[in-house]
Amino acid sequence: MGERFDAAVVGAGAAGMMTAAVAAQRGLRVVLVDHAERLAEKIRISGGGRCNFTNLGASPTQFLSRNPDFCRSALRAYGPGDFLDLLRTHRVSWHEKHRGQLFCDDSSESVIRVLRRECEAGGVHWRMPCTVRDVGRDADGFRLDTDAGPIRAARLVLATGGMAIPQLGATDFSLRIARQFGLRIVEPRPALVPLTFDADLWRPYAALAGVSLEVRLSHQAPAAEGGGQRARRPACAEFLEDLLFTHRGLSGPGILQISSHWRPGDPIRIDLAPGRDMGSALVAAKSGSRQTVAAALAQSWPRRLAEAWLGTAGETGGGDLAGLGGLRLADAPDRRLRALAERIHGWTLWPTGTAGYKKAEVMSGGVDTAELDQRSMESRRCPGLHVVGEAVDVTGWLGGYNFQWAWSSGVACGRAL
Ligand code: FDA
Which of 275, 218, 240, 259 is nearest to 98 (CA)? Predict the structure, then answer.
């Protein structure tokens, strides 16, 4: 038999707690199940411990999905302003850090506390830690076989998020159960993740680990891509953000952003001096200059970067760049300086992979939005089954968008249960 509920929500993270709180406060009998020992670990570690819980500019433009419009109605019904109202009610203060990104003044624990209290206000029943061994369905609704006994529920909400950071207990539970009930899945992959390179090719840059600078990154999707894929991946993505050199490759906000668009085999293009005309600047700086080309570049970049990057550009960039770093700027022909500038503004690299789910902030892909009603997050194929949060094929940019999607999809679902 098992205890009976109106709705069972599996996953007590950002989207699951929001769904459960909203549904329970409408008077539904809701059970929230999670296998973790500690509540909402991803909220706790997010934003360096201060949780970048939304972005003031959140709109469908900052989300990747096979159907980029899918998130529109949930974001309209519950946007950043609504979440701020909720934080105000609980006297949580925040600040804006960068381009609309909002963080807690205190710590991300405040956001967890707000969601837990909202669940308590609705009388949500908790099963945690609790493992769901099996899920079945009959005329009476869903049956969950858990290590805390059987649970029966008229509706089931899959809210176990994505597979990023398995060391924190992330699993593919939602995708597995969605598949079990016949829902299509858009291939999941790590996103907002560092990019890696062939170890031999990267060796000259490995010494630059820790160097960071603002760059413009762009990615062009191959022209041959099919219609469906193109809709999911804009033809061209561009970000002006910081880049960070690591021992194995590249990271930093700019790379994390571009990684959500990148696919194996694609190049990425980096403008190492965005907004400047390096060709004209180097040629103009020649007259009377006694410094080397490397020293001239070191006025705009960290010295380590200027020397190592110029050395490698010299080895791989052909005749015009060979030995240029050690040459006096005044002696360098304009043609060679302009060739160098071209390389600086259009450094093209072919990553060989990503750092994987262990280092990713999110999973892109997930339950295909074509399977779900955008107002209720309910499956069209399997009535009574809902999917929310990161498990859905809706992936936000870096900057608070993924939490906003968790809140918006959770509220949409909680109101519709
Ligand atoms: P979420 O991951 O929050 O919750 C899923 C829950 O399901 C967890 O409690 C888990 O224990 C549970 N679960 C998993 N498998 C289960 C199973 N088999 N059985 C039972 N329970 C199971 N986003 C953002 O907008 N701003 C930010 O600052 C950050 N920062 C950030 C830092 C780091 C290091 C990471 C890894 C991620 C971020 N994110 C972020 C992304 C953000 O954390 C993420 O998109 C949301 O937490 C997704 O919310 P969900 O509720 O969908 O999943």
Answer: 240
Amino acid at 301: W
For ligand 1, say whether the CB of 52 is within 6 Å of any of its atoms: yes
**Ligand 1 pocket check: which of 10, 37, 41, 46 to mutate, most ligand atoms within 8 Å of Cβ?**
46
| Lookup result for tokens 């993505």 | 237
| CA-atom Rg of the chain in angstroms | 25
CB 379 within 8 A of CB 386: yes
Q: Ligand 1: which atom is nearest the Cα of residue 401?
A: 25
CA atoms within 13 A on the CB side of 361: 28
For residue 165 and ligand 1, the question of a CB distance below 6 A is answered with yes
Q: Could you give the angle at the alpha carbon of 151 between the alpha carbons of 146 and 155, nearest 5°?
A: 120
pLDDT in tens, 314-372: 676 666 787 888 889 999 999 999 999 999 999 999 999 999 999 999 999 999 999 99
CA–CA separation, 234 vs 155, rounded Å? 35
Q: Do residues 309 and 317 make contact, with C-beta atoms less than 8 angstroms apart?
A: no
| Whole-number Å distance between alpha carbons of 307 and 61 | 39
d(CA 212, ligand 1 centre) in Å: 28
What tens digit of pLDDT does each residue of 390-410 get?
A: 999 999 999 999 999 999 999
CA of 180 to the centre of ligand 1 (A): 22
Integer Cα distance of 195 and 247 in angstroms: 11
Ligand 1 center to residue 84 CA distance, Å? Answer: 20
Q: Is residue 47 lining ligand 1, measured as CB closer than 6 Å? A: yes
Regarding the beta carbon of 46 and ligand 1, being less than 6 Å apart is answered yes
The residue nearest atom 32 of ligand 1, judged by CA position, is: 46
Whole-number Å distance, alpha carbon 162 to ligand 1 midpoint, is 7
For residue 25, what are the CA distances in angstroms to 117, 120, 300, 377, 411? 11, 9, 56, 19, 11
pTM of the model: 0.95
- Which single residue is written with the structure tokens 């600047």? 281
Structure ipTM over 0.85, yes or no: yes
- The per-residue DSSP string of 26-69 comes to TT--EEEE---SSTTHHHHHGGGGT-EEEETT--GGGEE-SSTT
CA distance 181 to 367: 12
* Closest atom of ligand 1 to CA, residue 168: 11
Q: Which atom of ligand 1 is nearest to the CA of 160?
A: 7
